[in-house]
Amino acid sequence: MRASDISFLNVNELTFVKSSGGESICTRYNIPAYQRGYRWTKNEVRTLLDDIWDFLCVNINNVDARYCLQPIVLKKNAESTSCVTWDVIDGQQRLTTLFLIMKYLSIYRPAEERFFKLTYTNRETGNKLEEWEGSIKECKPQGPHIGMVWDKNKDNLDSYYMSMAIDEIYNWIGEKKKDLSINSIDRFYAFREKVFVIRYEITPENDFEPMELFSRLNVGKIPLTDAELIKAMLFKKERNFDEASQNKIAAEWDRVEQELADDEFFYFLCSERNVFELRIDYLFRLNYEIKIGDTNLSYDNYEVFKYYCDKIKEERNDKIKVWEEIYNLHSVLKEWASNREFFHRIGFLVASCRINKRVKNEATKILRDLHGDYNKTTKNGFKDVLDKRIKDAITKSYNDETRGTTPLMLEQLNYKDHPKTVEIILLLFNVVTMNKFSNNMARFSFEKFLPKYPKDEWSLEHIYPQNPPKYEKGKTDLLKELSDAYLKELEVIKKSGMGKNSEFEKLEKELSANKDCGSSEIGKIIDACRVNIDGKMLEEDIDSISNLALLQKGINAGLSNQPFFGKRKYIIDKEKKGEFIPLCTHNAFLKYYSEIPGRFFSWNEEDRLDYYKTIKEIVGDFLANEGGEINAK
After folding, report:
1. Among candidates 425, 396, 255, which has minimal Cα distance to 323?
2. Which of 93, 222, 430, 549 has the fewest Cβ atoms nearer than 10 Å?
3. What is the C-alpha to C-alpha distance for residues 209 and 193, in angstroms, rounded to an integer?
């Protein structure tokens, strides 16, 4: 949808407009016949009244405070020397409710009853509304309630819902009047100055018919975003805004949107998926937070749009200057993405927000602070800043989980006491491993790391199972798999020269003699293989970071407590089907970190220590102390 005129007006300003000749003339808003009709219930009317009241109670003396309603979309119908008429394409529920509220308040402020006119193309509804307006003029503050008369037999739903809305306004005002500690009518009347509406006018140059536009706006009832409204403000025709400037912004806007459409770029900056209908909204939000220095924002009532409206006014309609702020910020983000060291470090900091979920809007807070750091230092200095922030993120996670004061060695982190910290460190392990690749094309995919569905959330998987399965007679398929796996392991052991051990020779003979797994002794033989080949792992080692890897919950659930070779086979199958397995998880189950070659079917103490050694080598520089210790506050 294109538009060339957008305004940010309070309720009073909806009443008058400048004519084409420059005179101030009244406004009439017409509800066309193709509109659904008025359908707000008492609950919606009361909610609006309560919201406005609560806002006014807090902000009555704040001259800059504004309560913003959803936009109304208009198309000019006619203009005379005394009045201009707009057809309301979208927003008639809000506009009609405002009209009813103002009309009812005019009982108490008859001298200030000037406000916009409202008409309905539906003649019956229009007549009912006009009849009620006439009766309101005769009403006195202490007189009886004047409701709208509606006829059930005529089945006019518009007048029925308007009647319910008027009754609710009357009841609400009556409740407020009983509070003698405040002048409720005077306070609420300030809503005409404080309540704002975004007026989005469709100009004759647009190629939409009103009914077509109404249909588009109401399919799914998707509201206009901040970015759409800001774009309309930027492209609004002004005397000091020439065509060349407009074309420049248009070309740069399109370029920014195209680059933000790259998932790998966007999700290195954003820790949430499908939050923004238009990704450029995230850019406007980030710049807003950078400028005001705050991230504890609700983003209700078009807060970002209001900021840029004011910004354009402050810059005396210098729209090029306002847009350059956004374009320059985007250029900085692209510089970060093009630098391999920056990309992986910043991407890690943003992605780790999902794991801890400590602070609302934490990702934009991180980016806001980093933007400030970037402007104060060199590229080498910025890399040092990023490393320090990574150390701080790990320390903060550890302190949040333990609330202790004792520094902890990396090897002491475990599944039960420090799950979030372990998850963050294993994420860092994967990210830094990718960063160390000499091939500049190989990068960690923050887009793939960001879950699409709840089952894609990340979790910790025990490489050696927490509760190894019991090998009982009757579980023929499992016993057969285990028997074949251990025979292959024993063959590797024999080739390495270790197979001369009499216990290994004995196990190989017993397994070979019981290949059908029908013997009652097979469970004991398998258990003996596990103890002699895998070794028995201590409980604290099973839960240690040295026995943990990152996996999505859905894949993790499929592994259950399978033995190592079963998990390895399952993960390989998932990768073949295109599932995302983090590189270091892939490497661990394919035994890339193990110094003893060829033993692919078991995970023992030596494997665990080799894996831990690699983790420490990769992430050690990012821990608080050189010895691999995490500080506590």
Report:
1. 255
2. 222
3. 33
Residue 442's CB is within 10 A of a number of other CB atoms, namely 12
335-367 pLDDT, tens digit per residue, is 999 999 999 999 999 999 888 775 667 889 999
Please, what is the Cα angle at 413 between 409 and 418, to 5 degrees? Answer: 135
| C-alpha 220: how far from chain center | 20
582, two tokens: 């983090």
Q: What is the pLDDT of residues 6-51, one digit of tens each?
A: 778 888 888 887 776 777 888 999 998 777 778 899 999 999 999 9
Only one residue has tokens 């320059």, namely: 328
Joined together, the tokens standing for residue 289 give 């937070």
Count CA atoms within 13 Å of residue 113 on its CB side: 15
List C-alpha distances in Å: 164 to 157, 315, 404, 501: 11, 46, 59, 91
Q: Residue 502: which residues within 8 A CB-CB, separation 6 or more? A: none
DSSP helix/strand/coil, 624: coil
Q: Which two tokens stand for residue 386?
A: 């990023």
Q: Which helix (H) or strand (E) holds 584?
A: helix 583-589
* 220-300-236 Cα angle (round to 5): 75
Task: Identify whether the C-beta of residue 351 lies closer than 8 Å to the C-beta of residue 363.
Answer: no
